[in-house]
Write a structure and sequence with these properties.
Layout (H helix, E strand, L loop, with lengths): L1 H41 L5 H6 L6 E8 L10 E10 L12 E8 L3 E5 L2 E5 L5 E3 L3 E5 L2 E7 L3 E10 L5 E9 L2 H38 L3
Parallel strand pairs: 5-10, 6-10
Antiparallel strand pairs: 1-4, 1-9, 2-3, 2-8, 4-5, 7-8, 9-10
Helix pairs in contact: 1-3
């Protein structure tokens, strides 16, 4: 009888944890992603001419451009890149379940963005890079980066106008705004579905625990 209580307790505790995590994923993550997608969709896309003539302000601006070939390369053809190291999590060489790539450095220098009517300069070095980057693997080291000519969507703050207007970028996303917004909505849908699936597994575990306790299993 004590074993049945113990099994029920363990299953119920695991089930409750699954329910809390699942509901948390579904309730909090998707709205955040959907709201971000909606806000970015409403943000007007601006060009060099607008940034040259308008006064800097505290509001966010969004641009679509390509990475200029006037940027210096840092590693091979990469203008921006991160370095990952492969780390084995298990002593058993045949077991790669715990193995993972760990980012050990990131290089995000100031960048020139090219548009048909001129250049825009990103001046900060702490922006995020989103999207599928080009990858070079060398043994246990992996390099992820962006090359000249890559189409990007950038959101940031307008710092100065003039011949080469300056931005403080929050993030650079590979592709267009439509690509980024679609990816955000796809992620929101995934977290919504995954969260309720997680919660359903938790409910099932609790039910199994109760059945074990009630019936002579």
């Amino acid at each position: 009888m004590k074993d049945k209580y113990f099994v029920t307790l363990i299953l119920s505790l695991i089930g409750i944890i699954f329910i809390i995590l699942g509901v948390g994923f579904s309730v909090f993550v998707p709205p955040f992603l959907y709201n971000e997608a909606t806000e970015l969709e409403a943000l007007p896309l601006v060009g060099v001419a607008y940034l040259m003539d308008s006064h800097p302000n505290d509001g966010l601006v969004a641009i679509e451009a390509i990475l200029s070939d006037q940027n210096p390369t840092l590693y091979q053809d990469y203008l921006v890149y991160s370095v990952d190291e492969y780390r084995r999590g298990s002593i058993d060489k045949n077991d790669d379940d715990d193995d993972e790539w760990v980012e050990i450095s990131r290089n995000t220098p100031p960048l020139l963005l090219a548009q048909p009517k001129g250049m825009v300069k990103i001046v900060n070095e702490d922006y995020k890079v989103n999207g599928q980057q080009h990858i070079i693997t060398d043994g246990n080291t992996r390099y992820r980066g962006l090359t000249a000519g890559t189409a990007v969507f950038v959101v940031g703050f307008h710092l100065s106008r003039g011949e080469n207007p300056e931005l403080k970028a929050n993030f650079i996303a590979i592709g267009t705004r439509d690509d980024y917004v679609a990816e955000q909505r796809k992620s929101a849908y995934f977290f919504d579905w995954f969260g309720w699936l997680f919660a359903s597994v938790g409910i099932l575990l609790c039910i199994i625990g109760i059945i074990i306790l009630i019936w002579n299993i």
